[in-house]
Amino acid sequence: MAVTMLHHVCIFLLLLQSLLQYAQTIRIELSSSLATDSSPWRSSNGDFAFGFHRLEDQSQLFLLAIWYDRIPEKTVVWYANGDNLAAKGSKVELTSGGSLRLIDQKGNVIWRAENIMYGKAFAVDGAHYAELLDTGNLVLANSDSASSYAWESFNNPTDTILPTQELSTGGKLSSRRTQSNYLKGRFQLQMQTIGSLVLNTIAIGSELTYYQSNTSDDSNQENSGQRLKFGDLGATSVLSVRMYVHPKSQSNESSSTTQSWINIWFVPKDICVNITHDQLGGGSCGFNSFCVSRNGWPTCTCLPGFSQSDNGCILEKAHACELGDLEPEQVYDMESLSNTYWPTSANFDVLQPTNEENCSRSCLNDCNCVVAVIKQGKCFKKKLPLSNGYVDTTVDGKALIKIAKSSDSDKHVNDKSNKNQIPGGWMFLCGSIILNVVLIIIGAAVFYLFSHHKQPGKLSTKSSISETNLHSFTYDELKIATDGFKVELGRGSFGTVYRGVVSLMNSTSSIVIAVKKLDKVLQEGEQEFKAEVSAIGRTHHRNLVRLIGFCDLGLNKLLIYEFMSKGSLADLLFRSLVRPDWNQRVQIATGIARGLLYLHEECASQIIHCDIKPQNILLDDSFTAKISDFGLAKLLMIGQTRTQTAIRGTKGYVAAEWFRNTPVTSKVDVYSYGVMLMEIICCRKCIELANENEEEVQVLTDWVYDRYKEGRMDLLVRNDKEASSDMKKVENLVMVAIWCIQEDPYLRPSMRMVSQMIEGVSPVSEPPSPYL
């Protein structure tokens, strides 16, 4: 009897334990929430957990994720906010309205569950509950039916596929940047047709296919978990697709096993050279880099003298063709890399027969040569950009790279000047003469300044900003020059612009100027204002409006620019009765791209404009496009804007990341440029009223993309004979514009790449939908 009763008690306890476990984790009710320090929500079998995953190298930042919870590695298999990590104090909540969202401490939405329909994202709401299934699938259920889901993580994969998870036609995985960086990488794995899995790049300028095959499921019942992993593995590694299994634990305790994931299959075997068809482009690692494969693990490396960029590598120090009296050996070094090749990069010159020494010397003395490859007695000289670089140890050869010397190598210049030293006596005599001349000049300058101090209407040469040629004006001088700020040229987000005239010093002639009175400038003292003006004053480029001077007197802060006689690009595009010349519009688009490239990459410190639009593009007498108002964003008060949101920029030209509380990069200018490029092509405003009743608004970016997908780009330039006869160029510019307006900033090209694509230096691949 006692034994029997004990047997029944044991059965009851087991059943009770099972029921408690089931009741504990089966559903997540409405109004539930998790904080960054809360225990995660788990699946009923305990295999998976959903919550905040703390990043190892960033202890105060968290990833909202799903991970394997029974194994020591806590392997992440899905994540929500890779592009916008959550700070401590954030929380994820299943609202009373049935929507799942991640919010920060201030209540700003960082991420929310959305479904994509017709290329647009729609927030999911109205769910009855949420549940993390035993398969690792997080679902929002819109009824009590187990198969009726409003949203599920399995339909929104990141870089991993789990057992039972299906990748339907059109579904895709995206690689992450590195093992610890969850930003979207350069590669995607897509199910193009049923059973056809394609691995390719999403790099701007080319789309390279590395793998295409039928897929099958070889599940192993002796493994506790299985996953298909897709990602950029390692700090400098490129993509691989790998299948992993994890041995089953002999105990329910996760700490009872120390075994790790086992890689049982991967493709491609050598991504560095495994391209299924010849195409131009950056290749596995992007432009100006090379790929090395070691036992299936590929690694990307920039060339010596280059640094990492969005789509490969860029020169750290630009090469100059004009060296003056210097010899190339004084300016450049030649470094070598064994067995490194760029077979798809064109050779602009081939020397044969020759040897390494002659090949190196020839490249060193050739302004156009950046890399020379010596192989089989031939010297192949190449320009930038270099594409599809890889190391092939089966072919004996060497790459010779020309690198600009560092600034401390200027001693070579001094060595050369010392060859013709002046004897000591002559040095003393010359020094005396020079000293006397300097004293005379100083005396004359002092007399001149006192006798001409603050003459109204004269262009003063005194500047309180070092290292620039800017002129310091008094407020009274500018008031006289503008006739009391009488003639207004325009108003913008930074202030009002007036026409003025100043007389040249010691001359009867005068020049026309544009005087901008800045509104609501940050009141952080004179140093802040002058630091920004100094940065603007050091910029010199054909496609930037030239800053002549400034005025800094208390609250009166003004900037003086060269006058642009042809007005703004907005006037040309939207206020002319006749469409501007097509070739003229193409040249304007090219010039703006070059100007932005200079601001982003080539001037002393990077300048992000933050308000690129036709009103801020001015035209000179020859219709050369010049960017204005650059570098002024830092001077604005926080929240000053032309829109109704607390962001900088102008409605219609503002990138999505402004709304997501994420760090702003130069890619916001790229987005605005893409919108403006569509306006240049179509001669239409980015936002227009679709009818006279002013009820419906037509968005140009949507309309252009729809016409592109329909293959009806002729409608974009209807009644424009010149553009209609140049449809190849129209198509090229439209594709560039669509790349620029991608919602994901990482997919947008840099302005360097934009310039290369517009000018035909780099090919333009078919862009994805900008809204996915």
Automatic annotation (TrEMBL):
<keyword id="KW-1015">Disulfide bond</keyword>
<keyword id="KW-0245">EGF-like domain</keyword>
<dbReference type="Pfam" id="PF00954">
    <property type="entry name" value="S_locus_glycop"/>
</dbReference>
<dbReference type="InterPro" id="IPR024171">
    <property type="entry name" value="SRK-like_kinase"/>
</dbReference>
<feature type="domain" description="Protein kinase">
    <location>
        <begin position="483"/>
        <end position="772"/>
    </location>
</feature>
<dbReference type="InterPro" id="IPR051343">
    <property type="entry name" value="G-type_lectin_kinases/EP1-like"/>
</dbReference>
<dbReference type="Pfam" id="PF00069">
    <property type="entry name" value="Pkinase"/>
</dbReference>
<keyword id="KW-0812">Transmembrane</keyword>
<dbReference type="InterPro" id="IPR036426">
    <property type="entry name" value="Bulb-type_lectin_dom_sf"/>
</dbReference>
<feature type="signal peptide">
    <location>
        <begin position="1"/>
        <end position="25"/>
    </location>
</feature>
<dbReference type="InterPro" id="IPR017441">
    <property type="entry name" value="Protein_kinase_ATP_BS"/>
</dbReference>
<keyword id="KW-0325">Glycoprotein</keyword>
<keyword id="KW-0675">Receptor</keyword>
<dbReference type="InterPro" id="IPR011009">
    <property type="entry name" value="Kinase-like_dom_sf"/>
</dbReference>
<feature type="transmembrane region" description="Helical">
    <location>
        <begin position="426"/>
        <end position="450"/>
    </location>
</feature>
<keyword id="KW-0732">Signal</keyword>
<feature type="binding site">
    <location>
        <position position="517"/>
    </location>
    <ligand>
        <name>ATP</name>
    </ligand>
</feature>
<keyword id="KW-0430">Lectin</keyword>
<keyword id="KW-0808">Transferase</keyword>
<keyword id="KW-0472">Membrane</keyword>
<keyword id="KW-0418">Kinase</keyword>
<dbReference type="GO" id="GO:0048544">
    <property type="term" value="P:recognition of pollen"/>
</dbReference>
<dbReference type="InterPro" id="IPR000858">
    <property type="entry name" value="S_locus_glycoprot_dom"/>
</dbReference>
<dbReference type="GO" id="GO:0030246">
    <property type="term" value="F:carbohydrate binding"/>
</dbReference>
<keyword id="KW-0547">Nucleotide-binding</keyword>
<dbReference type="Pfam" id="PF01453">
    <property type="entry name" value="B_lectin"/>
</dbReference>
<dbReference type="GO" id="GO:0005524">
    <property type="term" value="F:ATP binding"/>
</dbReference>
<feature type="domain" description="Bulb-type lectin">
    <location>
        <begin position="25"/>
        <end position="153"/>
    </location>
</feature>
<dbReference type="InterPro" id="IPR001480">
    <property type="entry name" value="Bulb-type_lectin_dom"/>
</dbReference>
<keyword id="KW-1133">Transmembrane helix</keyword>
<protein>
    <recommendedName>
        <fullName>Receptor-like serine/threonine-protein kinase</fullName>
        <ecNumber>2.7.11.1</ecNumber>
    </recommendedName>
</protein>
<keyword id="KW-0723">Serine/threonine-protein kinase</keyword>
<dbReference type="GO" id="GO:0016020">
    <property type="term" value="C:membrane"/>
</dbReference>
<keyword id="KW-0067">ATP-binding</keyword>
<dbReference type="InterPro" id="IPR008271">
    <property type="entry name" value="Ser/Thr_kinase_AS"/>
</dbReference>
<dbReference type="InterPro" id="IPR000719">
    <property type="entry name" value="Prot_kinase_dom"/>
</dbReference>
<comment type="similarity">
    <text>Belongs to the protein kinase superfamily. Ser/Thr protein kinase family.</text>
</comment>
<dbReference type="GO" id="GO:0004674">
    <property type="term" value="F:protein serine/threonine kinase activity"/>
</dbReference>
